Amino acid sequence: MKVLVQKVLSASVSVAGKVVSNIDNGYLLFVGIEKGDNEQQADYLAKKVANLLILTDENDKMNLSIKDTGGEILAVSQFTLAADVSRGNRPGFETAALPDDAQKLYEYFVEKLKTFDIEVKTGIFQADMKVALINDGPCTFLLQK
Q1: What is the structure's pLDDT at 70?
Q2: Within a domain: residue 141?
Q3: Does pTM top 0.90 for this prediction?
Q4: Which residues have a catalytic role annotated?
């Protein structure tokens, strides 16, 4: 399981030209689920995201978590994080979880994030989403378990 964390000033997801979710100040998460990923990995990554000290304090140092600041999270499923690009020029997706399995674990991960008293919004699973963001920093981290 992989979670790409981007610190953002704002982010939104649109489907068919309509904004379906948006946040200010917080994290945009791209969540990739591979075959064999499980709830224990989701638990670990949700806790890691909730406690990650990448938001700045009054001295402009990365010392605060999303919980400390009351920021929001926009979590977007992204199967392309499971891509294998080691052979040729066309990505392979053999390691990506099947859609039903991925959706269950993605939804579990989102619910787990909410247990940390964080406002979590989502895109629409398997939709053709357009994601807009203003990356703060830029500040991007890849978490995997």
Answers
A1: 95
A2: no
A3: yes
A4: 78-80
